[in-house]
Design a protein that fits this description.
Strand content: 25-35%
Helix content: 25-40%
CATH superfamily: Vaccinia Virus protein VP39
Number of domains: 1
Amino acid sequence: MRIVGGEFSGRRFSPPTSTPARPTTDVAKEGLFNALQNMIELEDIKTCDLFGGTGSISYELASRGAADLTLIERDLGNIDFIKKTAKALGILDRMHIIKGDVFKFMKSCTEQYDFIFAGPPYALQNIDDIPMLVFERQMLKPGAIFVHEHTPRNDYQKHPNFMRMKNYGTTVFTFFKQPE
């Protein structure tokens, strides 16, 4: 796993082999951030990484200047890895790592974010509830972006906040926008 851009570009990390996470591939991650740079200013933003996994997306956001990074992850091994990596990068003070269930977090969330990323397990039974909850719970600030990672079998083009989709083989990113 490597950081593909920004201040920490090229830094490599080896997540634990026992992790249940499926880190976003470097190629897909590079495509995601190339698209994002034309949509949103990442410097000094407040972000939320649902299904934080190994922390890969949050490291990319921090590398590009995000100031406030919240990660939700339930696996203790992943959380330990995130803390260790964030400390090595010197960004632990910008991170809020929450151990727990993403859906419980979303249902009780009162914060609003400039950017939210969700990279859930592809086989998650209620994967389609995620975009609904982001907008129902008003988790995005006006004009903010939400990106949902999924497989081609999920289609969110009829969602009222749908912007666009980017396909990288078995990885699809759907972009949503909160109206201004």
